[in-house]
Structures are given as C-alpha cells and as structure tokens.
Description:
about 500 residues; alpha+beta; seven-stranded mixed β-sheet; five-stranded mixed β-sheet
Amino acid sequence: xxxxxxxxxxxxxxxxxxxxxxxxxxxxxxxxxxxxxxxxxxxxxxxxxxxxxxxxxxxxxxxxxxxxxxxxxxxxxxxxxxxxxxxxxxxxxxxxxxxxxxxxxxxxxxxxxxxxxxxxxxxxxxxxxxxxxxxxxxxxxxxxxxxxxxxxxxxxxxxxxxxxxxxxxxxxxxxxxxxxxxxxxxxxxxxxxxxxxxxxxxxxxxxxxxxxxxxxxxxxxxxxxxxxxxxxxxxxxxxxxxxxxxxxxxxxxxxxxxxxxxxxxxxxxxxxxxxxxxxxxxxxxxxxxxxxxxxxxxxxxxxxxxxxxxxxxxxxxxxxxxxxxxxxxxxxxxxxxxxxxxxxxxxxxxxxxxxxxxxxxxxxxxxxxxxxxxxxxxxxxxxxxxxxxxxxxxxxxxxxxxxxxxxxxxxxxxxxxxxxxxxxxxxxxxxxxxxxxxxxxxxxxxxxxxxxxxxxxxxxxxxxxxxxxxxxxxxxxxxxxxxxxxxxxxxxxxxxxxxxxx
Length: 502
C-alpha cells in the first residue's frame, strides 16, 4: 500500500474511510457547534460548480431566484398538520430576542418572543404565505421561484455533508393553475436533477416516486433520484414534490380562473443540497483519496513544474504559463479548461500526492527533460497514482478535451457497472430477507439494490424495518412490469428498488 494512501481503506472501515477522504481533500471539517460543518474553499468550490450548472438549468426553464426569511413563525407550520408533524423533532426554535448579563456574570436569554420562531427547516409555509399575497388571478400563474439558502434540521447523528444540523441547498417552490401543470413541473425538475447527476457528477441514478411512508410531509407525491454508494447503500440525491392543493388550502393560495371562479393553486417544491458532495466522494473516490469527474472539478488540469536550479525554474515556469494559456484557449463543453499552475516550493512527490487527494482529474508534470524532449508527463486521476504517459507538449492542449471527456465517461461507466453488479431481483420474501440478513464485515455490497414487487402497505414496512431496509423508489424507466407483492400478494404494476440507505 502506498505511503500516502488513505487509512483505513474502504474494505477495512468504510465510514472512517469516508471521513478521511473528506479530510485529506480539505473539503470540510467539524465546527465548534455540534452537528455543523465548516465547508473549506475546495469543498465550497465544488458546491459553486454545482450551483452554476443547476442555476443555469433552472433559469433556462423559466425559474427566477429570490430569497425568503430564515425564521418562520410556529403558527405557519401549524397550518399544515402533516408538515409540522414531519419536521417537529428536527426544528430549532428561537424563543428570546436578546441576552442579558446575570448577577454571576453569565449571559442568559431575555426578552421572550410573543410567538416562537422556527429556524428554517424548509420554506413551504413562509413562501406559501407570500404566494397568497402575490397571486390573485390566473394571469399571475405560474409562479416559478427558486432560492439558494441554508436550512437547519437538528440532526442527532451527524456526518459531514451527508447529515448535518445546518446545510446548504436550493429549494424551488412553484404555483400552478392546474394539477397537470404542477405534475409536469415536478417531473421536469426530477429530469433536471437526473441529467445533472448523470452528465456532470458521473453518478448513475434511478428516478421514480417514493412510497407513502417516504414522502415529504404534506406531499401528494414525492419523486427522488437514488444513487448507489460504494458500500452498496442507497443515497437519496434529490427530491421533487407534487404538493397538490394541501399547502394552498392551508395558506390560502387562491386565484380567480378564466371564468372568474375562485380556485386553489396546485403547488410543487424540490431541492438538492450539499449532500451531493458526499455523494461524489462515496461514488468515485478510492483508497488514494478523492476522485472528481472533470465536468464538476474546480481544477481540471494541474500543471506541476519540476526543477532544481533557478535557471531551470525560470524556463519550466515559462513553459507552464504558455501551456496554461493554450489550455485556457481550448473549450471543454461550454467553458474554457480550468487550469492551475502549482508553483509552490515544496517537494515534487508531496505536491503530486496532494493533488491526487484533491481529486484533480489530470496532472501534468513538466521538467527540463520534458522540455528537451518536447513532451509533458500526464497522469489521470481515474488510474493509478504512479501511472504516467508522455505526450507531445505542442499537441496536448488540443487533446485535453477528449482526455477529460474520456475520464468523465469512464467514471460514469465504472459507477454504473458497480451498481449493476450489486443489483439483484428477488422473487419472494425469503430472498429479500436472505439478501439483507448480514451486512458483512467490510461493508462492500451490503445487500446492494434489490428489485422486486412490493405493495405500498404497512405489512411491507413490517418486514423491511427489522432489516433496516426501505423502499427507495419505483423506477419509471422502461415499460410496466406487473407482478404480485412478495409480502402481501397484492397486484403491483411496477417493481420497486429496496436498499439500506444513508
């Protein structure tokens, strides 16, 4: 095992391996506040890349950005009973509006609020209150708004990026004149999320509706994209909710239709979060550290000058700057290639391993011998850290986009092959139980995905709960595949995906 490899390995201790990859890649660290994280520049740069791609996709489909308050009156949540019940245990509540110094020198809460304020766990209620003011007529519809924000959900078992008390996300909220338009919007956004996961994160996902027990509180239907991590567990990577008229009725979001009759709007909400960074780590990374798909990597190509003398340094850096300019002039996708020259005065081996752990897709080493040969030494992050190939310096910029795309597609194909190898169909209850009966010592596989027919009933949950398994979604790809529930015998139109999940 290389001296710089992550310890423990994935096989030895997958949860700890994940934490060590995050730390080695300098993505985030725990904050002084329990359950909260500090997202460091490299981690935030990845989030900014995600924001940019998604924000353009939202705006291309007519959505606008806005911002709504962090604090929500408790009475707003109470208006939708299922909603408040679903979030009650996760809410942080503000009850006072100032601090005062006590006689013994302690700061104590003072100035009790007339009504407690909940720190935003999600914004359906506060945004709904505004929509009730803004929407009067069918001419005001649809309302298509997104906000980039932070939310707080008091998480008892935090894990960086995957579950934290505070995290960053986007949440879209829309209002429509008909149910058909709202359902169309819900599925449109689900498609945007799925395409983003596949095309930019190189992460294969299944998309479809969730069972009743897994729906967003107050939703009529919740659709999700589900990905498999390298320990075989599922991760819900994004959700899109058809809210029906539930929130509109609770908050009085009405409009006059074309006949002048008053009607309630049909609403949706949808979101993805910084959990996607955790998904990236667990989908692609290896025992050497982080692996980033080129399309989402903040730096796609890093140039590493190698020299011993000041004269060599000057010549090598000049060549690096020329190569940087040539690469910047080449487009990968819709943007110039993102290049960084690492000219820090540290040992070459240490520098190489730092960029391995940062997940940079392509490393290019340039030294005096390379310049003499008119070549560069190129290493790919999707291959072994010591594997290098010499390529002509002059032609490398023109070849770089194809190289990056080969890495991007290769990462997706590798993740898809991993998922397919750990996905099985089972025909009966005994097969389901046997698949998840033992997680195993190393965690690799851990049951993976099981495809089978199950009904949306408590009887199915009663079998799955002891196995710590949930129905992740009912995949919508392909034709109907009728069958009978392996637990109840009820007729079922499509099979579901079952898995242990984060």
